[in-house]
Structure formats: C-alpha cells, structure tokens
C-alpha cells in the first residue's frame, strides 16, 4: 500500500526525473531507476524541500549506491516523527505572541498585500503583518496558531507554500 510519503516521492521522481510512477515499488533501488550519483543528490534535495526538512547524511547518504525508495521514505517519516515529537514537547503559553514566516504566492499588487494583511488581522486584530510583494514573504506577529493564519490567507485567495 502506498503511503503519502511514497506518493510524494513518486511524484517528484515522475516530474523531475521522468520515472513513470506506475512502475515504482518501495524496494526499487534508485540506481536501477536510472538515477546517477548527482541525480540521487538532486532527488534528496527535492524531497527535503517538499517535506520541509533536512535528512542528516549519516542517516541516508544519497552518494552511496543501493539506496531503495523505501529507505528514502523511512528517512522522511523518521524526520517527520522527530519534528512532531519535539513540537509536542514545546509548551507555548496560550495567547503568546509568536513570530511566523510564510511564503505566499498569487500576490501581484498593493491590493493583494492589503488583502493578505486584512485576512490575518480579521482573525487577530492586533497582528503585525509585513508583506514583501516581490519575494512573497509574509512575516506575522500574532497570537493565532500557524494553521489558522494559513487558512485565513488561503481563504483570501492566495496560496501558502
């Protein structure tokens, strides 16, 4: 059964490396899929970017031949679990103001900047929202949880990456 992690990695292989996803299995060796050392490194960078994490080289070194797709999935899942556990142990007091950064796409003018600022301030009137239209970076100082801010921005018609 394919997991969300497997499906995401399969999509990266299909899009960036032209490997047909229908033929992929967890026990496939990356070398046998036609990925050379450089391409294995590029795959790992793409996987890390997709999951917004960094896999330590001692856990999985893409320069080494013989790495299976399952090993890549396991490394990602282990890192996700580690981040989740450390996040759970972090106690943030309710109502604490936090600085949060977002990458937002779809903004093209000053109206878009105002729409994003207004969306965030609709859920937290005291929020400080700084938008860089050129880069799409949005910095927010707010008491609201990240998922609520993401939802507010997306409901205003923009994509949070």
UniProtKB/TrEMBL annotation:
The secretion signal range is none
| Key words of the record | Metal-binding
Q: Which residues form the HMA domain?
A: 98-161
Q: Which PROSITE patterns match?
A: HMA_1 (PS01047), HMA_2 (PS50846)
The record's Pfam families line, in alphabetical order, gives: HMA
Alphabetical list of SUPFAM superfamilies matching this protein: ACP-like, HMA, heavy metal-associated domain
- Per the record, the domain of life is Bacteria
Question: Does this entry carry the keyword Metal-binding?
Answer: yes
Protein name (Swiss-Prot/TrEMBL): Copper chaperone CopZ/acyl carrier protein
Species source reads Variovorax soli
